[in-house]
Amino acid sequence: GTTTVTTMATVTSTNTTQAASLVTNSTTASSSKRI
Fold first, then answer.
1. What gap in Å lies between CA 2 and CA 8, rounded to an integer?
2. How many C-beta atoms lie closer than 10 Å to residue 5's C-beta?
3. Which CA distances in Å does 23 have to 11, 15, 16, 17, 32?
4. What's the superkingdom here (predicted)?
5. 34, pLDDT greater than 70
6. DSSP one-letter string for the chain
7. What is the number of other CB atoms lying within 10 angstroms of the CB of residue 10?
């Protein structure tokens, strides 16, 4: 029902945020190594 859809949306957005954070952290780490 609606609850399931809302939960799915929340989980998806959370995963996306975490993925973006990982990418950002990886990029930052690489930049730091270059310096």
1. 10
2. 9
3. 18, 12, 11, 10, 14
4. Eukaryota
5. no
6. -HHHHHHHHHHHHHHHHHHHHHHHHHHHHHHHHH-
7. 10
Tell me the per-residue pLDDT of 8-29, one tens digit each, with 9 for 90 and over.
899 999 999 999 998 888 888 8
Nearest-angstrom CA–CA distance, 25 and 15: 15
For residue 13, which phi and psi values (nearest 5 degrees)?
A: -65, -35
Token readout for 6 is 């809302």
